[in-house]
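Both lines are retained for reference:
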Amino acid sequence: MSTVFTPAARRTSHWWRRAAAGLAVATAGLHAGTLGEHAASSPMVGVVTLAMILGCLYCAGHLWTRGSNRDWGLVAMMNVGMIALHLTVMSPGSGGGSHHGHAMHAAATAPMTHVMSPAMSAALATAALEAVVAVTVLFYRSRLDQPPT
């Protein structure tokens, strides 16, 4: 079944695609800002960070040009995965310490004493916003594909 979008729906879709692409570029910038720190702590973490930068730019390019359901699904999965990974690695008692394997002092492992860096807070907030936008777009697109009842 082919769905015909009204001009207003096309403009809205275009705006959401461009906004999400901008958020993906911002996320790539946040990753790039931490690349030196990550590569210094562990070459493997540096490689993973570089892969995330490229992944963010890949998604941004696809959202900017077409924004298919596959692209939106990839954005949602990558952002939810990033949030889960960072919260797991950064949680006290995980062995990861404060961030990507940096050890925390024993005195700092008391409950609720861990404070995220502003860059990490910004990255997690941006990822959460991207995930919410992607899931919302997929939800509404799936509703448009339903046959009339």
